[in-house]
């Protein structure tokens, strides 16, 4: 019988316990490996507690972890990078995500090289996927078929599609087209829809009515209309360049290039018709009674070089406006006595002119030119200023004029080798700068600003200034390098509060230009020499703004913010006196997207005078497209529109809510901006035109801040600030150039969102103070 050995027993027990321990360890470790899928986009952090993150991990990315289930962050590896993600962002199952077809797409059998097409899927069709959202192709289910679509063809929201009515269409109340509205939509009307493009009926909005129309009544062809110009209208081609003359407006079927616009620069042309194809306007021209064809409207200076803007002479305000030269009286000049007017056509050798409201662009009619005080460039009288700039030719076919603005020839006829060009003088003609160009000491003549590139010194952000001092403006000495204090040419007081720019300095004087239109060459007009001490620095706040979101396409104008619901409203001018207002709301990814189910369209005109009233929860808009301004009140929930005609006010440029019952309205008149307060309840002005400041440029937005009782006024690319007495606060004025580092965009609308100034821009971007 074997004797019991304590040593052997202990050794065996140790081995046994060790094996059990190892088995338990590996078994537990194997069981702790768990698989998850990202439920919402998650950051991959560098450690379990660090705020630094390595990258984003997309929805439906597959991850494994051995972290304790109770951990706040799980340790994972994704695409070879190890880090930590929040447990709450993970799910045991894949997440189904909704997407829409943004570009006509195909359903494929697989995502490898052997894939083949199954079928085509139309724009705005809805799909669901549980694929990793970083995948090139998503696995989807469409009409009972499983397959793959390319991610780049999908979007998170529906895509508005532009259509044009090709057959007079009825609007139906339901998709089954059993009930309809009395309204019909005429041909060539532009509509937008977010219905799947394979649908039989499309959901649309037309002048405040939302409903369905037959898809077969709509087409993708561009909008087209003709407008006959009254007999006798004439114009001049301002720049020919490479523009052609077309048999029909370009973009229409059968249009062909039949001539060169450059062959008719500076000759008087008869204007027969105006046409619009898409967003481009074309003009039919004739010379010596012969129809030449159609040219792009932008190259036509619609009036003679000496006419542009005007206002009614005080002694002629009771005279009439006519439907045509020597035609039928259709209105009276009285309502327009204080407005700046734009002349866009002349007739009868300049004895009759056609006028429009300057800012709104509303056509008024024809008047004898003797009834008007005609201005050159809004009061800038065209003094000849001595300057000294280098220049290069950008349009060799640009016209050259003598001192009396008589045509001498084209620039390519005066070029002499490769010698440089010098600009020695400049002046205003109409609303455009003209330069006297020299080469090798010989004057070539006067040329338009759009035919040469002028190199001016300065032009840095630190050189933006403004002035509130009514001192003198002087010409330059003969060489254009310093001030000639014996040659006064204007008053600095005409530009009080405007954004100015120092071009060069000499001694105690600075040569300044008027920043007239968001840094556009040819419209930023040189003024002359002033005392440097009369100027104050204008801060640059460009770096203080950041992009918030992008808007849709179209002629963007107004901007408002619903502080109660966090919704932006963007106004668009859709033409012919109509506009639309589009709400932009945050989606599940924190991005602002259009709420196409609540778009409202009506006679909103420019749709620029737009403001939200936090006291009654209503959205207000003022349109001056018609003979009298109209105040529109819009319920943001139902988007129901009510209107009130505003009496005793010929034109409203901009509007903002001041308090529970008061709207501030701005009228841009000739030479001044007039502020009036309007009672919503009484529907009357409390002090019409009681407060005035000099014109500060083209007003683009206005917003009253109830928290600090300041009125923010947006003009071109700067913001001026006024107090409750409508007095400028010089220390609060600033300028900007957005986007930073790129061509400055035209500002379109101003509001306050989350206590920060927010500005819309013509490139369909919304920027906000940081």
UniProtKB/TrEMBL annotation:
Keywords: Signal
TM ranges: none
Keyword Methyltransferase on entry: no
GW domain boundaries: 227-305
Transmembrane helix is among the record's keywords: no
Source organism superkingdom: Bacteria
Protein name from the UniProt record: GW domain-containing protein
Organism: Sporolactobacillus spathodeae
């Amino acid at each position: 019988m074997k004797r019991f050995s304590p040593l052997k027993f202990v050794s065996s027990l140790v081995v046994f316990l060790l094996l059990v321990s190892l088995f338990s360890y590996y078994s537990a470790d194997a069981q702790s490996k768990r698989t998850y899928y990202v439920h919402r986009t998650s950051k991959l952090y560098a450690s379990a507690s660090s705020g630094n993150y390595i990258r984003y991990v997309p929805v439906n990315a597959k991850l494994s972890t051995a972290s304790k289930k109770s951990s706040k962050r799980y340790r994972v590896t994704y695409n070879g990078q190890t880090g930590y993600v929040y447990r709450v962002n993970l799910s045991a199952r894949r997440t189904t995500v909704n997407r829409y077809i943004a570009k006509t797409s195909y359903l494929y059998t697989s995502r490898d090289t052997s894939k083949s097409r199954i079928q085509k899927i139309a724009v705005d069709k809805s799909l669901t996927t549980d694929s990793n959202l970083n995948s090139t192709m998503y696995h989807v289910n469409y009409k009972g078929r499983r397959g793959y679509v390319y991610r780049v063809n999908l979007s998170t929201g529906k895509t508005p599609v532009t259509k044009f009515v090709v057959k007079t269409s009825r609007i139906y109340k339901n998709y089954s087209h059993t009930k309809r509205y009395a309204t019909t939509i005429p041909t060539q009307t532009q509509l937008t829809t977010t219905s799947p493009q394979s649908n039989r009926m499309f959901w649309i909005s037309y002048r405040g009515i939302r409903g369905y129309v037959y898809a077969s009544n709509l087409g993708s062809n561009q909008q087209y209309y003709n407008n006959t110009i009254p007999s006798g209208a004439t114009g001049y081609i301002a720049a020919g360049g490479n523009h052609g003359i077309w048999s029909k407006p370009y973009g229409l079927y059968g249009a062909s290039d039949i001539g060169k616009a450059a062959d008719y620069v500076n000759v008087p042309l008869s204007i027969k018709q105006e046409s619009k194809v898409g967003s481009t306007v074309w003009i039919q021209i004739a010379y010596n009674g012969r129809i030449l064809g159609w040219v792009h409207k932008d190259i036509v200076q619609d009036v003679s070089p000496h006419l542009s803007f005007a206002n009614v002479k005080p002694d002629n305000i009771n005279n009439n406006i006519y439907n045509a030269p020597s035609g039928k009286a259709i209105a009276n000049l009285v309502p327009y006595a204080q407005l700046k007017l734009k002349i866009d056509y002349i007739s009868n050798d300049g004895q009759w002119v056609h006028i429009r409201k300057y800012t709104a662009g509303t056509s008024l009619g024809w008047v004898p030119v003797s009834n008007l005080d005609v201005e050159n460039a809004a009061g800038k009288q065209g003094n000849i200023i001595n300057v000294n700039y280098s220049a290069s030719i950008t349009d060799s076919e640009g016209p050259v004029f003598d001192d009396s603005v008589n045509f001498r020839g084209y620039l390519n006829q005066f070029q002499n080798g490769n010698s440089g060009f010098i600009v020695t003088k400049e002046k205003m003609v109409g609303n455009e700068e003209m330069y006297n160009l020299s080469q090798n000491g010989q004057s070539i003549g006067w040329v338009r600003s759009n035919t040469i590139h002028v190199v001016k010194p300065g032009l840095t952000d630190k050189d933006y200034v403004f002035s509130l001092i009514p001192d003198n403006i002087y010409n330059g000495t003969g060489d254009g390098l310093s001030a000639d204090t014996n040659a006064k040419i204007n008053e600095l007081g005409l530009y009080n509060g405007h954004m100015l720019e120092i071009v060069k300095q000499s001694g105690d004087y600075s040569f300044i230009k008027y920043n007239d239109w968001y840094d556009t060459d040819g419209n930023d007009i040189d003024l002359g020499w002033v005392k440097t001490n009369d100027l104050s620095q204008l801060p640059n706040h460009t770096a203080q703004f950041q992009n918030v979101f992008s808007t849709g396409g179209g002629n963007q104008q107004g901007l408002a913010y619903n502080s109660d619901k966090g919704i932006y409203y963007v106004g668009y001018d859709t033409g012919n006196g109509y506009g639309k207002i589009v709400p932009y709301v945050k989606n599940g990814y924190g991005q602002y997207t259009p709420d196409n189910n609540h778009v409202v369209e009506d006679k909103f005109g420019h749709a620029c005078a737009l403001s939200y009233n936090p006291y009654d929860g209503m959205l207000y808009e003022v349109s001056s497209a018609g003979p009298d301004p109209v105040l529109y009140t819009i319920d943001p929930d139902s988007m129901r529109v009510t209107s009130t005609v505003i009496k005793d006010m010929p034109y409203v440029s901009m509007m903002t809510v001041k308090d529970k019952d008061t709207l501030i309205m701005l009228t841009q008149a000739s030479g001044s901006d007039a502020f009036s307060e309007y009672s919503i309840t009484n529907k009357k002005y409390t002090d019409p035109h009681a407060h005035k400041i000099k014109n500060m440029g083209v007003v683009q937005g206005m917003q009253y801040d109830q928290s600090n009782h300041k009125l923010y006024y947006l003009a071109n690319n700067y913001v001026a600030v006024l107090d409750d007495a409508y007095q400028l606060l010089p220390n609060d004025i600033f300028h900007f150039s957005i986007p930073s580092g790129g061509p400055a965009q035209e500002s379109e609308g101003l509001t306050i969102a989350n206590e920060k100034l927010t500005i819309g821009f013509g490139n369909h971007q919304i920027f906000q103070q940081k």
